[in-house]
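User: I'm designing a mutation panel for Electron transfer flavoprotein and want to avoid disrupting the core. Could you give me a predicted structure to guide residue selection? Please restate the sequence first so the numbering is unambiguous.

Assistant: Good idea. Sequence first, for numbering, then the predicted C-alpha cells:
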Amino acid sequence: MSKLTNVWVFSDNRDRYAELLAGARQWGAKVNVLVQRGDAVPAIKPLGADVLYVLEEKSALQRVENYAETLVSLIEKPAVQSLPTTLILLPATKRSKALAARLGVLLEAAIVNDVTALSVSDEGTFAEHRMYGGLAFGREKIMTSIAIVTLAPGVVEPIAANPAHDCPVYQANYVAPRQEILCKERRTKSLSSVDLSKAKRVVGVGRGLVAQADLSMVQDLATLLGAEVGCSRPIAEGEHWMERERYIGVSGVLLKSDLYLTLGISGQIQHMVGGNGAKTIVAINKDKKAPIFKYADYGLVGDIYKVVPALIAQLTR
C-alpha cells in the first residue's frame, strides 16, 4: 500500500495521540505532530513522531479553533490541487471538528468527520464514515491535495510508546486569526474517567432498569466480570442516571470490546452502531422480539431482575 507524503496530527485530548499516531504511521511517510503545551512533549515524543511542534500558548483560556491560522502557516499547501498528498488527522471531538472546519476553508481541503476506516492506495484515498444517524456507512474518495479527517475513537489500536525514540522539537509562532473566539471563563464539571472505547469487557444497561438505585446490582455484576458499565442513550441523556461518557451509540461511544453484555437494552440501530463492534454480544431481555437478539451471539429471554442476581450468585460461589 502506498503512503501519503505528510501526515499532520493534532489533538485537543492528549489521550488520543497514541491512537492518532498509530494511524498516521500507517497512512503517511512523514509524521508531524503538533501539541498545545510544552509539558506534553515528554509523553508524546515516545509515540514516534518525525517532527514535533509546540504551539505557542497565548492564554490559559485559548480556544482550539484559534490555532487554524497557525497550523496553516506550518502546513505546506501543494501547488497542484489533485489527489491527496497530505493528511491532517484530528480526533472526532467537538473542538477538533470546529478546527477542521476552519482548516478546510483556509486550505480549500475536503473534510470527512467521524471516520471509521481510512485507506490509502494507488487507487486513491478513501474514508468511510457513518451516515443517516448511523443507519448506513458512506465511502468517500477524497479529491483535494490535502485531506482533513476527524477519526472516531477505537478505529486503530494505540501505538506503543518507545522511550528511546527521539525527534526534533520546534516552537511554532502563534498566528492570530482575524477574529478570535474568546473564552471568558471556564467552570469545572465532574467527568467520568472511563473510556469505554478501550474497555475489554462492557456491561450495558437500558430501559429495562426500573430505578437508578438498581445500578448497584449492575455494577456488582460488572465488578465480578472485570467489566466497565455503559448504557443506552435514555439512561444517560433522558434519566441522567449515568454520565454522558458512558452512553453507547451513534453519537456516543463505539465499542471495540471482547465482550458486550446487554441488560434490558432493546437494540435499536442507533444503539447498535455503538455496540456492534464488540467481538461477542450477549443479550438479556424479557421481550423475545427485541431487536437486540438479531445482533447477539448469545441471547437469554428473561427478566434482568431475576437473571442478574442469579449470575452474581453463581459468580460468587
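For picking mutation sites, this is relevant: The chain has a mean pLDDT of 90. The chain is about 25% helix and 25% strand.
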